[in-house]
């Protein structure tokens, strides 16, 4: 497995693979890898001949300096994990390589970035879309796999690839959960043992929204059912719960045209101390 650290090295590797007739699958990450990331890698390797994983904690997408500083960075473990599952190349540039002095171009996302995470984290998606465009430019993948855990990010990146004619297939991989239902996330390691147990309130709140919807609730009632579960957990600080159209991400007032699987979702953000957890679910699951 190759570990590459500049865009030129990355492009050169990728061009050679493509000349050899290989297709390239790409999994962009910020490191602190867990089995959720490994599921994305497995997905990419089923679809493509070679798999590239990028590891870069992108300063441009952090709207809080403390969150950036405390983001876990176990780079040696991450590289070992990639090697163990047969990743072909890790792209791990430094911030100075990605954003050398004089770097000034930004990619601006559209309306999809204005709600939920975009409303709560000003500038976040401009940072995400800019770095993903740069990573795509260095890796030049045929296919890129993103997690549905960051559902809004996935929708925005699908638009990025389509709107900028990138010719890259964007795949959304289902959320990988711990046995108690908590979505796997790099930030989970920052929860205390007690908060980790209590954090199950986050997926349970989404379960409550799904159950309420199945019982005929309106979107507002489904949100209230979810919020009630979080409110019952004294260590949790609720930030938002939204029921939205799965394609446009617009909040829903009614389910009149949204009763099919995949048509409407619920998303939430909840804090435990200084750790912010996000999660989302299909409101009309077909299982
Ligand atoms: N539990 C999961 N299931 C599916 N995909 C996931 C999961 N966790 C992360 N991903 C995906 O992995 C990719 C890289 O995410 P990232 O490196 O930010 O990890 P993370 O666990 O989401 O960390 P955090 O949310 O704490 O920043 C993203 O496409 C993300 O959606
Ligand atoms: C896509 C991404 C790697 C861009 O930094 C990041 O937002 C993430 O890990 O989801
Ligand atoms: N996985 C989302 C990246 C972020 O929280 O910045």
UniProtKB/TrEMBL annotation:
<dbReference type="GO" id="GO:0005524">
    <property type="term" value="F:ATP binding"/>
</dbReference>
<comment type="pathway">
    <text>Cofactor biosynthesis; (R)-pantothenate biosynthesis; (R)-pantothenate from (R)-pantoate and beta-alanine: step 1/1.</text>
</comment>
<comment type="function">
    <text>Catalyzes the condensation of pantoate with beta-alanine in an ATP-dependent reaction via a pantoyl-adenylate intermediate.</text>
</comment>
<comment type="subunit">
    <text>Homodimer.</text>
</comment>
<dbReference type="Pfam" id="PF02569">
    <property type="entry name" value="Pantoate_ligase"/>
</dbReference>
<dbReference type="InterPro" id="IPR014729">
    <property type="entry name" value="Rossmann-like_a/b/a_fold"/>
</dbReference>
<feature type="binding site">
    <location>
        <begin position="147"/>
        <end position="150"/>
    </location>
    <ligand>
        <name>ATP</name>
    </ligand>
</feature>
<keyword id="KW-0566">Pantothenate biosynthesis</keyword>
<feature type="binding site">
    <location>
        <begin position="184"/>
        <end position="187"/>
    </location>
    <ligand>
        <name>ATP</name>
    </ligand>
</feature>
<dbReference type="InterPro" id="IPR003721">
    <property type="entry name" value="Pantoate_ligase"/>
</dbReference>
<keyword id="KW-0547">Nucleotide-binding</keyword>
<feature type="binding site">
    <location>
        <begin position="30"/>
        <end position="37"/>
    </location>
    <ligand>
        <name>ATP</name>
    </ligand>
</feature>
<feature type="binding site">
    <location>
        <position position="176"/>
    </location>
    <ligand>
        <name>ATP</name>
    </ligand>
</feature>
<dbReference type="GO" id="GO:0004592">
    <property type="term" value="F:pantoate-beta-alanine ligase activity"/>
</dbReference>
<keyword id="KW-0067">ATP-binding</keyword>
<comment type="similarity">
    <text>Belongs to the pantothenate synthetase family.</text>
</comment>
<keyword id="KW-0436">Ligase</keyword>
<feature type="binding site">
    <location>
        <position position="61"/>
    </location>
    <ligand>
        <name>beta-alanine</name>
    </ligand>
</feature>
<feature type="binding site">
    <location>
        <position position="153"/>
    </location>
    <ligand>
        <name>(R)-pantoate</name>
    </ligand>
</feature>
<dbReference type="GO" id="GO:0005829">
    <property type="term" value="C:cytosol"/>
</dbReference>
<dbReference type="InterPro" id="IPR042176">
    <property type="entry name" value="Pantoate_ligase_C"/>
</dbReference>
<feature type="active site" description="Proton donor">
    <location>
        <position position="37"/>
    </location>
</feature>
<protein>
    <recommendedName>
        <fullName>Pantothenate synthetase</fullName>
        <ecNumber>6.3.2.1</ecNumber>
    </recommendedName>
</protein>
<feature type="binding site">
    <location>
        <position position="61"/>
    </location>
    <ligand>
        <name>(R)-pantoate</name>
    </ligand>
</feature>
<dbReference type="GO" id="GO:0015940">
    <property type="term" value="P:pantothenate biosynthetic process"/>
</dbReference>
<keyword id="KW-0963">Cytoplasm</keyword>
